[in-house]
Automatic annotation (TrEMBL):
<keyword id="KW-0963">Cytoplasm</keyword>
<dbReference type="GO" id="GO:0005667">
    <property type="term" value="C:transcription regulator complex"/>
</dbReference>
<dbReference type="GO" id="GO:0032922">
    <property type="term" value="P:circadian regulation of gene expression"/>
</dbReference>
<dbReference type="InterPro" id="IPR011598">
    <property type="entry name" value="bHLH_dom"/>
</dbReference>
<dbReference type="InterPro" id="IPR001067">
    <property type="entry name" value="Nuc_translocat"/>
</dbReference>
<dbReference type="GO" id="GO:0005737">
    <property type="term" value="C:cytoplasm"/>
</dbReference>
<feature type="domain" description="BHLH">
    <location>
        <begin position="34"/>
        <end position="84"/>
    </location>
</feature>
<dbReference type="InterPro" id="IPR047230">
    <property type="entry name" value="CLOCK-like"/>
</dbReference>
<keyword id="KW-0539">Nucleus</keyword>
<dbReference type="InterPro" id="IPR036638">
    <property type="entry name" value="HLH_DNA-bd_sf"/>
</dbReference>
<dbReference type="GO" id="GO:0005634">
    <property type="term" value="C:nucleus"/>
</dbReference>
<dbReference type="GO" id="GO:0000981">
    <property type="term" value="F:DNA-binding transcription factor activity, RNA polymerase II-specific"/>
</dbReference>
<protein>
    <recommendedName>
        <fullName>BHLH domain-containing protein</fullName>
    </recommendedName>
</protein>
<dbReference type="GO" id="GO:0046983">
    <property type="term" value="F:protein dimerization activity"/>
</dbReference>
<dbReference type="Pfam" id="PF00010">
    <property type="entry name" value="HLH"/>
</dbReference>
Length: 148
């Protein structure tokens, strides 16, 4: 009987320990599950935002008649931006810098005045060798009147 009593005491002690261990494990599982759920929500929110931005970017691209996947949208965006950068650089190179030119002169007037001042001329030739444009300043330099 002593053995039974002590056994029941041990059993109740073990039951209490198992119960607290089990509660601790359940608590840890709940914490892990809550972290995982929170992380999943954050990831879903990030993916949804990314998809909205990709869709908006795709709608801004020229010639987007069909639905494009994400990598196509990004590649076409890169191509467009490169082309835009080149066009802007070419445009900037062909424009007369505004700090060189008086504000009351147009680009054409300024160009004409510069050609006259430098005793230079402008000549445009096609690939077949035909002349398509000669500036008026060529007359004084070549003593030749351009055909008009």
């Amino acid at each position: 009987m002593v053995f039974t009593v002590s056994c029941s005491k041990m059993s109740s002690i073990v039951d209490r320990d198992d119960s607290s261990i089990f509660d601790g494990l359940v608590e840890e599982d709940d914490k892990d599950k809550a972290k995982r759920v929170s992380r999943n929500k954050s990831e879903k929110k990030r993916r949804d935002q990314f998809n909205v931005l990709i869709k908006e970017l795709g709608s801004m691209l020229p010639g987007n008649a069909r639905k494009m996947d994400k990598s196509t949208v990004l590649q076409k965006s890169i191509d467009f931006l490169r082309k835009h950068k080149e066009t802007t650089a070419q445009s900037d190179a062909s424009e007369i810098r505004q700090d060189w030119k008086p504000t009351f002169l147009s680009n054409e007037e300024f160009t004409q005045l510069m050609l006259e001042a430098l005793d230079g001329f402008f000549l445009a030739i096609m690939t077949d060798g035909s002349i398509i444009y000669v500036s008026e300043s060529v007359t004084s330099l070549l003593e030749h009147l351009p055909n008009t």
